[in-house]
Amino acid sequence: MTYDKHRYEPFAVAVDLAVFTVREGVLEVVLVERGEEPHRGRLALPGGFLRPRESAAEAARRELAEETGVAGGFRLDEVGAYSEPDRDPRMRVVSLAHTALVPHLPEPRAGTDAARALRLPYAEAGPLAFDHDRILADAHRHVGALLETTPAATAFCPPAFTLGELRRVYEAVWGTALDPANFRRKVLGTPGFTVPAPGPARLTGGRGKPAALYRAGPATRLHPPLTHPEGPRS
Amino acid sequence: MTYDKHRYEPFAVAVDLAVFTVREGVLEVVLVERGEEPHRGRLALPGGFLRPRESAAEAARRELAEETGVAGGFRLDEVGAYSEPDRDPRMRVVSLAHTALVPHLPEPRAGTDAARALRLPYAEAGPLAFDHDRILADAHRHVGALLETTPAATAFCPPAFTLGELRRVYEAVWGTALDPANFRRKVLGTPGFTVPAPGPARLTGGRGKPAALYRAGPATRLHPPLTHPEGPRS
DNA sequence: TCAAAAGTGTTCCTGGTACACCCATGA
DNA sequence: TCATGGGTGTACCAGGAACACTTTTGA
After folding, report:
1. Which SUPFAM superfamilies match (chains A, B) (predicted)?
2. Count of domains forming chain A
């Protein structure tokens, strides 16, 4: 239980961010090109070190704003800690991985740190620096589980959204097609998940019957959960 | 992304352990009495700092052996990271909380560090040092969720166990009574959860029909999950 | 012979899946 | 008028909950 703070090489604590968005029915993730060694020029998850008086959540929000231009209005969840001794060759770094779910990214402004950020479809997020491939895979699994038990899917949508938009979020993250009729009943039958939004109906893609608008409801957990077909099956 | 390792006060990284066991149908947790300031004499979760070349899991297993005498043969799961700046008054400490599920604790030997360890029913685990009340509550919730989707309950049982013993684990962790008949069918109907163990039947408590023995099966996830009554209801 | 726990059978009912069908809009 | 997506209805079926009942032991 004793600890001499100068006896050991210091640890650094970092946050790594898997920033997800859904565009045109495709799950995308934000990556940055590394500007320095190690792994210069390779793609990595955005992230950075905790400052002396920051919690992990605060550091995550700050780094997200700095590196990708996303400022507030997103959902942040903890994925896990990565603490293997040699995961960063420079020094001992313990990373706290988070997911950030954002409705839509403003295009990064040139000249800022955010200019190095790019969006890629999750399926094409190639080999990444450090152990970020593993972190990204864990984060994706984590988001899939969040959609089952929490209203996290609404974090991908604008403030008012149609049930079709919400369904496409689930389909993009889970990679499976869902029955629109059954999805509708499940969502509306889950108390607090969505509430009807006032205002006129909206045309989703131009064609088809205009859809009613909903907003995110007060629930933080989904009862019953929205299980995806693959779950009980595999 | 740059970081000068000597520019800031160093961080310390620790593991905190919520060590659970089920005795006589009661969920118990292992606590230690702090031998030094801060919070000298108060109860706390066992834990300690990561050594320079240890991962969190390695540190957790080492600390568990040192502080409670539990050596190997237990299940370890990650709960989350606690990173608020002032959670430890001595210095900046980021704690990685874990749960350890053990079938039965050997009585701690006097004269070792483990002598300060004690078991308490979870419900009576009073106010703890630091933010350990919150960590313990999170850990308990985490174990409850693990029982639904993983075979974690077998970690509380000896190598060969009866379905009645397994059911009492669920009842102790969830705090609810379960129908023995339905529980039995659910467990046996979940592939890979349990496999019949050779050998004679065992008397659980002396009275009643002798029960068949089972061992933990090869599954790491439960399909379908064992949902508890409170889940979909509340 | 009684209590207690294991184990089996059965009924009821909820909730999920699949799919047919109608509605409202743009092209 | 056709294609497209929103929205409703419904039949089927698996799985969970509740509970009666038999079996096998110790006291």
Report:
1. Nudix, Winged helix' DNA-binding domain
2. 2
Instruction: Give the pLDDT confidence score for residue B8 in this predicted structure.
Output: 60
Q: What is residue A6's predicted lDDT score, i.e. its pLDDT?
A: 52
Give a yes or no: residue A112 inside a domain: yes
Residues 6+ apart with CB under 8 A from A144: A173, A174, A228
Query: Which stretches does DSSP call E strand in chain A?
Result: 12-23, 26-33, 43-44, 47-49, 75-82, 93-101, 117-121, 194-196, 214-216
Is there a single domain that holds both residue A43 and residue A69? yes
Cis geometry, peptide bond prior to residue A38 (ω within 30 degrees of 0): yes
The whole domain housing B225 covers 151-233
User: Cα(A19)–Cα(A62) distance, rounded to whole angstroms?
Assistant: 13
Last residue of a domain, one of B149, B164, B192: B149
Contact between the CB of B191 and strand D at under 7 Å: no
Selected for mutation to probe chain A from B2, B4, B5, B228 (highest A CB count within 10 Å) is B5
A61 pLDDT higher than 90: yes
**How many Cα atoms occupy the beta-carbon half-sphere of A187 within 13 Å?**
28
Contact A96 B85 (CB under 8 A): no
Question: pLDDT for B127-179, tens place per residue?
Answer: 999 999 999 999 999 999 999 999 999 999 999 999 999 999 999 999 999 99
Residues B33 and B140 in one domain: yes
ω into B224 cis (within 30 of 0)? yes
Q: How far is CA B42 from CA B30, B34, B54, B116, B129, in A?
A: 14, 6, 28, 11, 6
- DSSP H helices, A38-131, are 56-68
- Residue B230 to chain A, least CA–CA distance (Å): 10
B132 and B48 within one domain? yes
Give the pLDDT of residue B1: 46
**B122, B43 Cβ separation under 8 angstroms:** no
